[in-house]
Amino acid sequence: MARLSPVLQQATPVQVARGEGSYLYDTDGRRHLDFTAGIGVTSTGHCHPRVVAAAQEQVATLIHGQYTTVMHQPLLRLTERLGDVLPAGIDRVFFLNSGSEAVEASVRLARHATGRQTIIAFDGGFHGRTMGAAALTTSGAKIRAGIGPMMGGVAFAPFPYAFRYGWSEEETVAFCLKELDRILVTAAPARDVAAFLIEPVLGEGGYVPTPPAFLQGLRERADANGILLIADEVQTGYGRTGRFWGHQHVDGLAPDILITAKGLASGFPLSAIAAPEAIMSKALPGSQGGTYGGNAVACAAALATLDVIQDENLVANAGEQGLRLLEGLRKAAVDHPGVADVRGLGLMVGNEFLTADGAPDAAAATRAHGAAAERGLLLLTCGPFGNVVRMIPPLVVTAEQVDEGVELWSEALRAAAR
Ligand code: PMP
């Protein structure tokens, strides 16, 4: 009998048997309110009947078409359909399997399109675990530790995490843009920079919405220097933040390359990069691909996911329920000074724990996370110090389920404080 490698770090001891909507049911039949959504993946909830039906039908028709050998209909239909939701002008897409793979594909494309090498990523960013994506990731030591040397051609600039700096958002953005300007004439000369790579909400790094003025500052610097702006929308895309794409919280802003995965196919492995023709056409033909990319069942599930998101108005629901969650959590935090900040955008909400001295308090976050799990509320932690408890309900979450989650969290905070 083989056993799983101890490399696995599991957030809860729960063994699930099945899922339905916002709930998971464990092997003992106990119900858990799932505010992890498979790390922001099960956008339409667990086993949405329309996604299930589309996948079942596709499984019986064609499982694997292999797009570098033969083309298949679900991939073509999904490509066309994405035109309805992609930002104007971004009309070329290419499919892969995971977020990490798509991040690496975006780097490949940016380097091909610009003939430059350097990618500037931001402190605390998470872009994946494969070696190239890990080289761009600074959300926590475990992703990078002991595996170097890392891929070259990467520079890091400060991310405007205002709460950590202890400054206003305006001051933080001004500081970070100033630092970026310095980096563009020192460590990473602008003429060598292919792209800025940023998450519209810093995800694994602590659930910090990127201030609109910072994204605008990046766009201006990109335009002035022939640098591409890559939006890593792996976690923020597909309605999660209350807009279809996270970057759409900034009026008029468009990235040059957009990366999507997670919520795209409600749990089937699928990711994509998207860019305007002028950029995508610079890719060396054949330089992107893979055995499983654009899998037919995953594409069929993605088509059904889009139908459900549109028909059930899930983007608006994410915005509404996100606000309700944020308000509820802020009220819950009033009696718990250890919860020093509650922030978020749409259905990406983080609770940051600090000690009385203002130091990151991973122990308190872990206690509250564990107490929530004991009460049937599944959550995750994040942040470089592990001191942020984050909530990522599925986009189908109802007001009653948000209230249930807030109530369980309040109980967990009380229990963890004892
Ligand atoms: N980018 C972001 C912003 C992510 O949140 C993640 C996953 N948490 C990734 C990339 C990597 O995606 P995957 O785990 O599918 O490789």
TrEMBL record:
InterPro entries xrefs: Aminotrans_3, Aminotrans_3_PPA_site, Class-III_PLP-dep_AT, PyrdxlP-dep_Trfase, PyrdxlP-dep_Trfase_major, PyrdxlP-dep_Trfase_small
Write down the chemical reaction(s) this protein catalyses.
4-aminobutanoate + 2-oxoglutarate = succinate semialdehyde + L-glutamate; (S)-3-amino-2-methylpropanoate + 2-oxoglutarate = 2-methyl-3-oxopropanoate + L-glutamate
Keywords, ordered alphabetically? Aminotransferase, Pyridoxal phosphate, Transferase
Q: Name a Pfam family for this protein.
A: Aminotran_3
Presence of keyword Transport: no
> Belongs to which family?
Belongs to the class-III pyridoxal-phosphate-dependent aminotransferase family.
Give the protein name, as stated in the record. (S)-3-amino-2-methylpropionate transaminase
